[in-house]
Design goal:
The structure is a single chain. The N and C termini lie far apart (54 Å). The chain has 13 helices and nine strands. The radius of gyration is 20 Å and the shape is globular. The protein is of the alpha/beta class and 295 residues long. It is 55% helix and 13% strand. Strands 3-2-1-4-5-6 form a six-stranded parallel β-sheet, sandwiched between helices. A three-stranded mixed β-sheet has the order 7-8-9.
């Protein structure tokens, strides 16, 4: 495979790019943040002088940015790097964004002879570090196959979902389901707490039953330990739920639970918890219940 570019070395992008390097890919990263640049250099990564250099030198380029407007600006804006890329270049956008934006980017790049797939991930920072992300991709299936060796280095599963935009549609569905699961978990644990049960024992008793889930296994220990170090921040989940509701409005999908979760997370963000892990939904229930899980 040709040289691989990676743009977006944030909380997810840094460990993802590290896993590509460990897998032996010839990697060139683009980063503006000086602290992240130093971290990349200390990890032995080659750091480009500009994003345009990444586009010129790499045949496959991964982007992992905060939202799809930033991806559109990076690729297609006034100083967009797509015009620097050679025909046949493949952009693998692993940003969690809006399906409509992914379809628009795909169509514009296709006019330039450049390929694009949207391939967002689920699993948060812990699974990014472990290289066990779940990857969901939209675009032309042959480009999914072309990117598969990269996905195998970053994740434990990669699924082609359908045409451009399908990856982000899948991710938005994922984020709605995760948000509602987290709230249900916090609500159930608060019931146990208020009723005088040992919440740790309750978690242990039910995690192997029908209520058990990856969400429960990952988030219940954090709630019970009052540990909200971010694996996936509340403010990012707000972004995803906003995109989900906008998409739902376009296709006339009923989404009352997603709307409730968006409002709940916005309240937490406004009270100063936006940078906390989304398991901090427990704080909302602690406030309503008047008790803390770890007291």
């Amino acid at each position: 495979m040709s040289k691989i570019g990676f743009i977006g070395l944030g909380i997810m992008g840094m460990p993802m790019s590290n896993n590509l390097k460990k897998a032996g890919f010839d990697l060139l990263v683009g980063v503006r943040n000086e602290a992240r640049k130093r971290e990349a250099e200390e990890s032995g990564m080659a750091v480009a002088g500009s994003f345009a250099q990444v586009a010129r030198e790499c045949g496959v380029i991964v982007t992992m940015l905060p939202n799809s407007p930033q991806v559109k600006e990076l690729l297609l804006g006034e100083n967009g790097i797509a015009k620097e890329a050679k025909p046949g270049t493949l952009f693998v956008d692993m940003t969690s964004g809006a399906p409509g934006d992914s379809r628009e980017i795909y169509a514009e790049l296709k006019k330039m002879g450049i390929h694009f797939i949207d391939a967002p991930v689920s699993g948060g920072e812990p699974m990014a570090v472990a290289g066990t992300l779940a990857i969901m991709a939209g675009g032309d299936v042959e480009n999914f196959e072309r990117a598969k060796p990269l996905f195998e280095a970053m994740g434990s599963s990669a699924t082609w979902v359908g045409p451009a935009g399908s990856g982000n549609t899948c991710k938005l569905a994922n984020q709605v389901i995760v948000a509602v699961n987290i709230a249900g978990l916090a609500e159930g644990l608060m019931l146990a707490e208020k009723a005088g049960a040992d919440t740790q024992k309750v978690f242990e008793a039910i995690k192997g039953g029908l209520a058990g889930s990856n969400v429960m296994n990952a988030k219940a220990p954090m709630m019970l330990a009052d540990n909200y170090k971010p694996g996936f921040r509340i403010d990012l989940h707000i972004k995803d739920l906003t995109n989900a509701l906008s998409t739902g409005e376009l296709v006339h999908a009923p989404m009352p639970l997603a709307q409730e979760m968006l409002e709940l997370m916005k309240k937490l963000s406004e009270s100063g918890s936006g940078a906390c892990d989304h398991s901090a939904v427990a704080k909302y229930y602690e406030e309503l219940g008047g008790v803390k899980f770890n007291d």
